[in-house]
Amino acid sequence: MKVNNALKVTVVCSQLLLAASVFAAESKSADVFYYNLTDSFIANLDKILTQEGSEQGINLKKYNAADDAYAQSETLDIALADKKDTPLLINLVDSSYAGEFLASLPKDTTRQIIFFNRNVSDAALASYDNAWFVGTSPRESGRYQAEILVSYLKAHPDYDKNKNGVLDLVMLKGEQTHLDAVLRTQEVLKVLNEQGIKYKVVFSANANWQFQKGFDFMDQAVSSLTFNNIEAVVCNNDAMAMGAITDLNQYGYNLEDANKYIPVLGIDAIPEARKAVEEGRMLGTVCNDATKLSEVLVTMVKIDTKDSEEISKAIGLPVLDKRISIPYHKICNAQ
């Protein structure tokens, strides 16, 4: 039986249109708002999240606030005005803005709002049905840092180079008012106390998560204290730790001479830090799992539900009071 060519074309076109409509129905979009893409961890997260989104059919439109809270709030307002239901993934410059932002949402919206990486208050999350936080426990990361350091000290009872009976500690911290920086620092010192490690913070500075400031403040510490009076360096993130290590390296420390070594610790496990640990230039870091974080964010966008049990089942992690905590793990060099 002969088939009319026009009919063939019509059938094929219909199939293509059907396939396109199915794809359109299955594909989704989300807007991602980063606090600062020059941050080493955030830049790495962006690469992983972009890949994960692409693999899962999620189209991500990205915005970089460049650490400008006002610019980010303006961008968020524009996003709200332009779109009705696109999920928003928000890495806030100023975490305290979460409540005000949620209060500005239209009363009839059900748009999914997922804050990530930078913690927001319980009150903010409770104020809107479809608001969530995906991140980590800052206390846990500080505890893991301290545990790595304590293990090193116990393996090296001669760590007290100046024989003053205490661990002389340099602390390089994030922003002064940033809750993660405060809690990470508190937990490190708490664990040292629990383990009976006598210590003295001989130098402390807010290097604001930045490599260059980590380098500069480490150099200030070396200049004012001398190497003999610095016995460990604990940093609230890897970018500052890498700055500190780079400064130490220029003086021949943390390279090949075992007698010229100061244990340095960070948080995030960015690629540069992992390499430094492998090479023995850095004692350890605590892995902030960007891959798992990305998987959770993309999965939540795909299912877009307000049901905590459904979310928990899909991501394989508990949801507690609208919070999903990504577990940390230690990465250290056996010195």
Mean pLDDT: 91
Strand order of the largest sheet: 2-1-3-4-5-11
Number of E strands: 12
Class computed from helices, strands and strand pairing:
alpha/beta
Describe the biggest sheet? 6 strands, parallel
Commentary on this structure:
This protein has 335 residues and is α/β, with parallel strands linked by helices. Helix content is 47%, strand content 18%. It is built from 12 helices and 12 strands. The protein has a 6-stranded parallel β-sheet with strand order 2-1-3-4-5-11, with helices on both faces. Strands 7-6-8-9-10-12 form a 6-stranded mixed β-sheet, sandwiched between helices. It is elongated, with a radius of gyration of 24 Å. The N and C termini lie far apart (81 Å).
In short:
With 335 residues, the protein is of the alpha/beta class. It has helices at residues 5-26, 40-55, 69-82, 98-103, 122-126, 138-155, 179-194, 211-225, 238-250, 271-279, 290-303, 308-315; strands spanning 28-34, 58-64, 88-90, 113-116, 131-135, 167-173, 199-206, 232-235, 264-268, 284-287, 323-325, 329-332. Strand 1, helix 2 (40-55) and strand 2 (58-64) form a beta-alpha-beta unit.
Task: Give the SSE map.
Elements: H1 5-26, E1 28-34, H2 40-55, E2 58-64, H3 69-82, E3 88-90, H4 98-103, E4 113-116, H5 122-126, E5 131-135, H6 138-155, E6 167-173, H7 179-194, E7 199-206, H8 211-225, E8 232-235, H9 238-250, E9 264-268, H10 271-279, E10 284-287, H11 290-303, H12 308-315, E11 323-325, E12 329-332
